[in-house]
Amino acid sequence: MILGFVSITKAVTVAPKPLRVGSTVVALCSIERHDTARNVFSPNHKPQIRRECLQPPNFAIVRIVRLNPQQYHLLARTALWLLAVIVVSGASVRLTGSGLGCSDWPNCEPGHLIPEADFHAWVEFGNRIVTGLVSIAVVLAVLGSMLRRPLVTKLTKWSWGLVAGVAIQIALGAITVITHLSPPIVMGHFLLSMVLIWNATVLEHMARPNNTCGTSVVKSLRLHICLVAVMTAIVVVTGTMVTGSGPHGGDENVERLALPFSEIARSHGGIVVVLLLATVILRLRVQNLRTGSVKHRVNVVLFVMILQAAIGYTQYFTELPVLLVGFHVAGATVLWISAVRLVLATVTSPLEVA
Ligand code: HEM
Fold it and tell me: Which pairs count as long-range contacts for 138-143, CB under 8 Å and 24+ apart, including other chains?
């Protein structure tokens, strides 16, 4: 008997039932020189493909999964919120000094995947879990965009951005640990997260099943909305500078940014006051808009901004308690998502369907 590979698809012509299109299975089958009349092996007998190899095999059908727009949107939304969670879980590792909570990788301790009842180890381990979930989510976002029907090539491009960003973040995270949380690296790590959040927010917006064009608004109003988003970005950047020159900027002994903490914190707070004014004026301007989405999103931005400013001032006057700083990081992330969504509400170009 000679063992050989026989492509099942070649057997279609003689198989009793046609195979499904999309079956790519190649089966290991036997080709034999077998005299069936005498039931003995015969080297002179004409080689035959065994009869069972010509049957459609049960395992041969590989179903290609397809996602509908709702299912893909759920994937994109999950990736966005996991990226938001990792900003806070990463910050909590720094704020609680849990960077070396686990001494081994991928196990937390040698021989133990899960930490013992140690607070720092659990904080570090929790961040590792979120990192794993984020990595899976962004890879699924790419794969899902290819399996989505109808296919939208823009979704694949934007989801590749997430994979690239997360890969860079993993490398930057390692550099952050090696440099004992050097403030410029911590700042870069945080700001790149905000770029990733922007990417994920755009992806989630484009993936909405009922994605229709945004509201068309007059040019000056659109500029006003963009100004609020740009100012929010500036506030986030200055916030990381405040952190980089303060007590939570890195390891105890690592050199801080050469900036006077109180002054840079006051400048950060001062820009926020201007931003708040600009947003209140924006709220008055959208009061009479006929469609609700822009007005609703301005309301969300204003609400989160007021809360965030209140947390900012409270933490400044209470010597930066770790818990409040953690809320401040979460607030900055949510505010950034809301500001990007506000801009997207006025984008009027539709999705390209490939
Ligand atoms: C729109 C509102 C605000 C946003 C988006 C914002 C954003 C940020 C961000 C992103 C950070 C860096 C967090 C980190 O790297 O861990 C930060 C830090 C900080 N912010 Fe704000 N902030 C806002 C309002 C305020 C206000 C009104 C104050 C009051 C002075 C303030 C005081 C601070 C202080 C003191 C820090 C340093 C905290 C630390 O030690 O880590 N923030 N902010």
Answer: 138/79, 138/162, 138/163, 138/165, 138/166, 139/163, 140/75, 140/79, 141/75, 141/76, 141/79, 141/203
Question: Do residue 321 and residue 225 come from a single domain?
Answer: yes
Residue 86 and residue 207 in one domain:
yes
Domain total in the chain:
3
Which of 183, 211, 239 corresponds to the end of one domain? 211
In a shared domain, residues 101 and 155: yes
Q: How far is the CA of 243 from the centre of ligand 1 (A)?
A: 8
Longest dimension (CA), the chain: 99
Indicate if 133 and 97 belong to the same structural domain: yes
Last residue of a domain, one of 211, 237, 259: 211
187 & 239 share domain: no
Test site for ligand 1: of 87, 243, 245, 251, most ligand atoms within 8 A of the Cβ = 243
Q: Rounded to an integer, what distance in angstroms lies between the CA atom of residue 50 and that of residue 85?
A: 57
pTM above 0.90, yes or no: no
pLDDT of 2 over the 90 cut: no
The sign of the dihedral angle between the CA atoms of 313, 327, 242, 228 is negative
Protein residues whose CB sits closer than 6 Å to any atom of ligand 1:
91, 190, 235-236, 239-240, 242-243, 246, 248, 265, 268-269, 272, 275, 305, 308-309, 312-313, 315-316, 320, 325, 328-329, 332, 335
Mean pLDDT for the stretch of residues 254-278 = 97
Examine residue 106 and say whether the peptide bond preceding it is cis (omega within 30 degrees of 0): yes
Rounded Cα gap, residues 244 and 247, in angstroms? 8
Cβ neighbours, 10 Å, residue 253: 6
My answer on whether 75 and 127 are in the same domain is yes
pLDDT one-digit tens code per residue, 102-118: 888 888 988 899 998 78
| Residue 128: domain span | 66-211
Whole-number pLDDT of residue 190:
98
| Residue 324, pLDDT above cutoff 90 | yes
